[in-house]
Amino acid sequence: MLHHEIKSLLEYAHTHDNATIYTIKNETPWHEVTHAAMIFKDEIGSQLGGPYGSVMLNCLYDNVVDGRLTLLGSEYLQPQSVWGRLTLVNAAIDDEESYYSYMQQLMLVPVRHSMEGVMIRIQPSEYKEWIRIHKDHVKTHNIIQFFSRLYNWYRQLPWIKAVEFVGITSCSDDIALLQPLVEKHTHIIKAFEKRLNEDIKSCNTCDNNAVCNTINSLFQKG
Question: Which runs of E-coded beta strand occur in the chain?
């Protein structure tokens, strides 16, 4: 439902002076563990997002290039940096309930699994993700391995056909590129919640008409 905006963002990202494109499904992923790490302040080797600027957003998108990562910034783990992650997922959506359920599942993927020496915290309502990496892993790991592990986690969901990422570790100006998408996505999710949870008798009594027209077009057949 944000296809035009996503397409424009991808076109900009692919021509960005600081962009590198990777095929992460062929990369060695970050090692997975069964329990999440608790990393204290004196153990931090790298910190992504948090107070330094963070935007994390998942979107359904038809034209996904499976396993592609467009990274704006360095692949190496810095002591601290901004963090932006746009995850694009191609999935078959049959109804509104499925769409809403899928979006909730996508949001929780990073905290339902664990990487060695990595602590991930999310603020779903704020579209933020904060990552701490233990100092023992900074020199032996990188952003590409991190995204490769994320890719494997997302692809485990049976309804997902393909996954693509845009990652940002460069600067706050590049993080701001995702903010318009976040604002529009927020309106769509709120409209979904209202449609699913309230018994609306007439569209004339609702203030979500513009967004609902977009939602309706998603489920039109033929």
Answer: 19-23, 32-33, 44-49, 54-60, 68-72, 80-81, 83-91, 114-115, 118-123, 128-134, 160-168
Pairing of strands 83-91, 54-60: parallel
User: What pLDDT score does 193 carry?
Assistant: 72
Q: How many domains does the chain have?
A: 1
CA distance linking residue 54 with residue 191, whole number of Å: 25
Q: Please, are residues 164 and 25 in contact by the beta-carbon 8 Å criterion?
A: no
pLDDT per residue as tens digits for the range 57-109: 999 998 999 999 999 999 999 999 999 999 999 998 777 777 878 888 999 99
Q: What CATH number does the domain containing 23 carry?
A: 3.30.1650.10
Q: What is the mean pLDDT of residues 22-26?
A: 94
CA distance 42 to 175: 27
Mean pLDDT across the stretch 3-9?
Answer: 90
pTM attached to this predicted model: 0.87
Domain that holds residue 147: 3-218
From residue 109, alpha-carbon distances to 56, 121, 152, 153, 162 in Å are 12, 11, 11, 7, 15
The whole-number average pLDDT for the span 105-115 is 95
The CA-CA-CA angle for residues 191, 153, 19, to 5°, reads 80
What is the C-alpha to C-alpha distance for residues 189 and 202, in angstroms, rounded to an integer?
20
Nearest one of 127, 126, 136, 50 to 87, comparing CA atoms: 127
Please tell me the predicted confidence (pLDDT) of residue 191.
75
